[in-house]
Amino acid sequence: MTSVFSNVQTAPSIEVFALTEQFKKDSNPNKVNLTVGAYRTEECKPWVLPVVKTVEAQLAADDTLDKEYLPVTGLPDFCASAVAVCFGEGHPVLLSQRADGIQALGGTGALRLGYDFLRCILGRDTIYVSKPTWGNHKGIAQQCGYPNVREYRYWLASGRCLDEQGMLEDLTAAPEGSVIVLHGVAHNPTGCDPTPEQWEKILAVIKQRNLFPLIDLAYQGFASGDLDRDGRVPRLFADHNMEFFVAQSFSKNFGLYNERVGNLAIVTQSAEITGRVKSQVRNIIRKTWSNPPSHGARVVATVLRNPALAAEWRENIKRMAERIHITDQIGMFSYTGLSAAQAEYLRTNYAIYIMSDGRINMSGLTSKTVDRVAQAMHEAVTKCSA
């Protein structure tokens, strides 16, 4: 009997996870994994934040908690706290209730909700992502049915810096109403962020061309150790009375990678409009995952609503950020400029695993491995042509 699945082809592997599996199977005692986007200690181990352990123990001992469904839009305390972290306590968009939040399955889920709403409810058909960008930015757009998924120039390889002119030219040429996906801080994969002055220029073009910004804020606090500094971009757009979405992730700054804790922050011209938008996103959720999980959201909400715990959390993220030192880039990732062939050279000859686009996770380096990695990279550059 012929299977109905006979014509289904094996899908391409997801590089970051495929390389991680290859790394695990590698028997080289000196192997180094610089691929996956998760924090590592000096011992190259995952780190559960102390404040998270404290709160999880409290939640486990709380007999008043149950396993009932959360509201479709999420745990209210979490959503309110997440938006407050994004914009800062007392920001006018919060006081006017122009901003609100919706719990999502990680930052990826928040992006999906934003993409879906803009495509299905507003009918937007063109979306721009940076070149290069996180792979899922394009993939989610295609999955959501955007007929036009385009790129704006971002990385200037010759100068190892932002292509300011190219980016502004491409945004200026974008059709009115296009969705523009922006990295709020710690651009992935380059680690190269616009300066405050460049952000002002970017905002001016978006405003002039009537483009819709969707800010991916995956690394607030984790990038510099300062929540306010890392939250400058959404606050800048809010200060200019823009309407926009922010996809927030608490995977990095809380270390809650497998709890899938995210939030879609919505900012419109009025509380009434924000409420209407939220109602439409609620119905999208109902047709996808129906209700969000509670544990990770409760951890985040409990920390953020307790001043002492929130202060401890800020120290935790500062500790993580301070272990990552990059002179001209920011955040977890560094764009080395190594080619796919050079990356393969490192894996084959040194069991050093990096992404084929040259991106590395800086927290995967330790004082014991950094010299060997640097020497191997030098050899890859000198012996292996790009």
Automatic annotation (TrEMBL):
Reactions listed under catalytic activity: L-aspartate + 2-oxoglutarate = oxaloacetate + L-glutamate
Alphabetized CDD domains for the sequence: AAT_like (cd00609)
Domain of life: Eukaryota
Phylogenetic placement of the source organism: Eukaryota, Metazoa, Spiralia, Lophotrochozoa, Platyhelminthes
Record key words, sorted: Aminotransferase, Pyridoxal phosphate, Transferase
Species of provenance: Macrostomum lignano
GO molecular function, one term: pyridoxal phosphate binding
Pfam family, one: Aminotran_1_2
Name of protein: Aspartate aminotransferase
Keyword Cytoplasm appears in the UniProt entry: no
Domain Aminotransferase class I/classII large: residue ranges: 30-376
GO cellular component, one term: cytosol
Gene Ontology biological-process entries: aspartate biosynthetic process
Listed EC numbers: 2.6.1.1
Additional notes on this entry: In eukaryotes there are cytoplasmic, mitochondrial and chloroplastic isozymes.
Keyword Transmembrane helix: no
